[in-house]
Amino acid sequence: MRPVRRADARAWLRMRRALWPEGSAREHRGEIDRYFSGHRHEPKAALVAIDDAGLPLGFVELSIRNIVDSCDTDRVAYLEGWYVVPGARRRGVGAALVAAAEQWGLGQGCTELGSDSIVDNRVSRAAHRSLGFDETSVVRNYRKDLLPPLRRRREERIAGDVTMLATVLIYARDMERTAAFYERFFGFEIARDPDGRLFELTSPDGGARIAIHQAAKSVKLGQVGVKLVFAVPDVDAFKREAAAKGLTFGATHQADGYAFANAKDPDKNSVSISSRAFRR
Asked: What is residue 135's DSSP assignment?
């Protein structure tokens, strides 16, 4: 049992997505990046359980809350996330993670540990009870959107209603390098053909796929009239995150109610980030 390290980022991302599948890979990756850059409010700490070979078996994310229903103090250690990989369950890993969380809480000056689970999650309810948690209340939370939807999601469109762009093909000198660029900076997931002739990149958030093909020697890269535009809600925030990873965008330009900025991929293709899709 130890604090999570930067080398654990990929495994942490996989486990987070398994625990909270409603979040996109980009959202989880952004939270992990912020954690390692020092922004540690929620979670304030993350602990990982590993086996003898150093492979992650589970994790807990912890915070300090000043208000927790049914708790007596105003400084409560809180179990924000608790997950064990399926192959390691019922082997004491979950209990060891909670025990480590308790020790962390005591070290933070807390005398209570809080947690929660979905109302109908019977497995989580039984696990909490077996480790000494008292069930204090059952709550249903509600929300109401005060802003109109920015746009209908692509998957909600009726099949056959529109013809949609499905794939953008990029010719690359170094296919691995180009694929890694779109994986690192834009969150795409890479699938390689068995013969290695084509890489297909898919965004967990949906949208068009990117296919990467080996460029012939006769192809002059970076001279085509195409630009890949990625929709982001906050252009400057995305630029800061990208810069921290090693990609520098040009100046932020203001247009009709939205902003955009440009950069180049390893093959000198133009890429742009734009908030146009999110304008009100």
From this structure: P
Structure tokens at 88: 């390691």
Between strands 253-254 and 259-264, the pairing is: antiparallel
* Integer CA distances (angstroms), 85 to 32, 198, 275, in order: 19, 32, 37
Residue 221 CA to residue 216 CA, distance in Å, equals 10
Taking the C-alpha atoms of residue 228 and residue 260, their distance in angstroms, rounded to an integer, is: 12
Burial class (CB in 10 A: 0-12, 13-18, 19+), 123: exposed
Beta strands 270-274 and 227-231, pairing class: parallel
Position 80 scores a pLDDT of 94
pLDDT in tens, 38-59: 877 778 999 999 998 889 999 9
Q: Amino acid identity, residue 95?
A: A
Helix-strand-coil percent breakdown of the chain, rounded to 5? 30, 25, 45
First CA to last CA distance, the chain:
47
